[in-house]
Amino acid sequence: MTRRGARHGRHGRLGRSEVVRPPLPPLDGRLDRFEITVGSAVEYLRGAWEELRDVQFDISAMPLHDRQDGIPRWRVDHTVKRVSLYRVPIERLLPKGHDDALHRRVAIESAVFHAAAEYVGREPWELGPEGHDY
Length: 134
Description:
This protein is an alpha+beta fold and 134 residues long.
């Protein structure tokens, strides 16, 4: 019987444990990117606008029903202080040729700003740093 060197275990691999596995790759799917983009835009808006600090921003896949004027991308409910963003219409209803990561991010941030502007009764560009009276 030939003896292997000390660097090999019984099955040819030493130093590996069945309990410890290699690190998993970071989560980087479409849902994760959507949530991160919405979260960073909401964090900015809450820091700049006191009216939005207590508003809950939800993410849903699709609206429950269509409106007469098209598929909504968000819904504002003042009674419960909630803004619901609909992921699928925001991401999928982009113009042809604009379905890449950059345009998707711009569409997501734009939807967040438009929904927040509707909630506070302003125009979306007023929510940016140039439109706010500090």
